[in-house]
Design goal:
The chain is mainly beta. The longest helix has 5 residues, at 120-124. It contains 2 helices and 7 strands, in the order E-E-H-E-E-E-E-E-H. It has helices at residues 24-27, 120-124; strands at residues 3-9, 16-22, 37-39, 49-57, 72-77, 92-97, 105-114. It is globular, with a radius of gyration of 16 Å. The strands form 2 sheets. A 5-stranded mixed β-sheet has the order 2-1-7-4-3.
Length: 132
Amino acid sequence: MADFQVVVADPDSGATYQRDVDGQDANRFVGRAIGEEVDGGAAGLDGYTLEITGGSDDAGRPMRGDVSGPNLKEVLLDGGTGYKPSRDGERKRVTVRGSEVSEATAQLNVKIAERGDESVEDLLGEGGDEDE
């Protein structure tokens, strides 16, 4: 059964909220890919729509939107998610995870795409992590 942490970003306020999600709610995310929208009820935001923006597995390997599937893959990168070159033209082979959410996902990053009736603070708790 899937079990991971969902980090919800509120683009309007700049705050982030962390929620542990497991069971049936976590299964709503499994099989979805980066860029897809999910019902916010899975993360405690009833009436909201969330867009998947990224994530990582238990070893900290990032998900990349340009790598298909949920599996690990070694790709040659010249920058972007998973690798920051220290000089011009530098490339490196890096192991990253595909764009699809799977059982191996440990953290999932999402942002609010469509708002509901209640405020985010009321649904997810007081004070986001904007200063942390």
